[in-house]
Amino acid sequence: MTIELDRPYSPERHHSHRDVTGGWLRPAVFGAMDGLVSNFALIAGVVGAAGAGRGAVLAGFAGLIAGACSMAAGEYTSVKSQTELMRAEIAVERRELARDPEGELAELTAIYRARGLDADLAARVAAGLSADPEQALRVHVREELGVDPDDLPSPYVAAGSSFCAFAAGAVVPLAPFLFGASGLAMALVLSLVALFVFGAAVARMTARPWWLGGLRQLALGAGAAAVTFGLGHLLGVTVS
Ligand SMILES: [Zn+2]
To answer: Is pLDDT at 232 greater than 50 in this prediction?
Structure first.
């Protein structure tokens, strides 16, 4: 195998990959879909029970706020505990590097040996990366914990973005009532269109055809709303 060292790295010549982690877009789309499906179903349930009046608007508002807060709180707790765990493990690694640099160097050498480098090269790479203590810590953390210590996720950003994502989805079935709609028809149409769009957007991040993803999401969301509408209707008949 020959390596052309004089050829500069060029992103155009390099083959491209899908962004497999999805970055911020994936959780945002899933959060919005969550808000849409749950608030659509909630409003349908109230309309089924009591008709489309003030109750439906109030329920939709309460559903939006409660759902968005719950998503934000859950996301905050999840990311916070994850980063705390990572920080604790990074501290362990830092202590270990200070206490036993020889042993840590041997450990790093063994990692590169396991990756397929020969003993001599593995030792040289490990020694080179261990020269600077901060660099050594970053390398150990990346190799052993699989995280970038300079790029740990922020629980506040996670909480804020899931709040906004959920609210953005939840406002869709609520919007027609805010503009004075007196029936479920407009909310139904808007929600079904949004379900299809979100489903198609999620499918675009995978290898599935977009229209299949859109239709599937539409069917799931419509099913959820139909169930709550039916139950709401039964309940409304029983209660009144
Ligand atoms: Zn280590």
So the answer is: yes
